[in-house]
Design a protein that fits this description.
8 helices; 2 domains; 10 strands
Length: 346
């Protein structure tokens, strides 16, 4: 039997084209798989979202709505609210009590003022009663003096009278002016009598200063009707004075001093009666230079210095000096104005 020989196959040669074809096919397959996977994932996500949306209303219907009372802190919050309400109620009560206390305090203050007024009245009545009792006590002691004591006192008084009669007579003549006053004319000197002391008010020095400064007020008076000025201090005082328009004709006008007031600059001022009457005192230096025919002395007298005024008045009367007295209330200033009255001397 004869075998048939198969024809021999030729070897296949390697080709890059076929290799590239294989690689391209493999890459294409991989890309297709990626696309399929990506599309499937998107479809799955959308389906799951739709299922959740469909399931949420049902879950909302079935699940109970949560309440604030279910919170674990609800009890603490409620307790704090209750404590706050109690504190507010206590505060309202305290405020009402405070109002009651204030009303009681005002009532007590009024009653205290009334009691204080009554106490002062009682003290005044007690002082008057003590004075009366003192007088009565003195009268009672005099009434109980024995006859011998009265004789002894009378004898002593007679001896003192005899000794006084032996002394040479000392006559003091007081030349009181006729009690008829007249308006002061000529120069006038001012003294303050206050607190038992006499103080000279150098009005002439003030007048010299304000006359030197008088032209400075014209411009101010063009725009105003009244101007106020103050002098420098002279001694223990200074002078506050006032300028006013008197009338305007066209663009011109007249003006003048319509008033002045003496202001105190020092509380430590003045001389007592004995110091004032002593030689070389401030009062004597002024008084000794007075010309009785041309100068009048005006005393501004406060209630606590009338005795001082009378003694100094008598001293000036002996020198034939005309004296004018102007009494003042305790707190009134020494002042003058165009509408006021002039001093009247005796």
């Amino acid at each position: 039997m004869c075998r048939r020989h198969r024809p021999s196959r030729e070897k296949l040669s390697f080709s890059f084209d076929s290799f590239l074809d294989v690689v391209t096919n493999v890459v294409g397959i991989i890309i297709k798989l990626i696309l399929v996977t990506w599309v499937g994932a998107r479809s799955y996500t959308a389906a799951m979202a739709l299922l959740e949306e469909q399931a949420s209303p049902a879950a909302a219907l079935t699940k109970p709505t949560p309440k604030f009372t279910d919170d674990s802190l609800h009890a603490d919050v409620q307790r704090n609210l209750n404590e706050l309400e109690e504190a507010r109620a206590r505060l309202v009560g305290q405020l009402r009590k405070l109002e009651d206390v204030e009303q009681e305090s005002q009532t007590a203050a009024k009653e205290l003022n009334q009691l204080d007024s009554k106490r002062r009245q009682i003290d005044e009545e007690r002082a008057v009663a003590a004075t009366l009792l003192k007088d009565d006590d003195q009268k009672a002691r005099l009434a109980h003096l024995s006859l011998d004591e009265l004789r002894l006192r009378g004898k002593k008084l007679l001896e003192q009278i005899k000794e006084i009669e032996k002394l040479p007579a000392q006559n003091q003549v007081l030349r009181y002016h006729t009690p008829v006053s007249r308006t002061v004319r000529g120069d006038e000197l001012f003294f303050e009598c206050r607190g038992g002391k006499i103080t000279f008010i150098d009005l002439q020095a003030f007048l010299h200063e304000l006359q030197a400064a008088g032209d400075n007020v014209v411009e101010e008076l063009r725009n105003r009707n009244k101007v106020e000025r103050v002098t420098s201090q002279v001694g223990a005082f200074r002078l506050r004075y006032f300028y006013e328009k008197e009338g305007a004709l066209g663009g011109s006008f007249r003006y003048g001093i319509t008033g002045w007031r003496v202001e105190t600059m020092s509380d430590a001022r003045g001389e007592t009666l004995d110091a004032a009457l002593a030689a070389n005192s401030d009062f004597r230096r002024v008084a000794d230079a007075i010309d009785p025919n041309q100068t009048v002395v005006t005393f501004w007298v406060y209630p606590d210095s009338f005795e001082l005024f009378r003694r100094l008045r008598d001293f000036l009367y002996e020198r034939e000096v005309e004296v004018a007295g102007r009494p003042l209330p305790p707190r009134a200033p020494i002042a003058a104005s165009r509408s006021g009255t002039k001093s009247r001397g005796q």
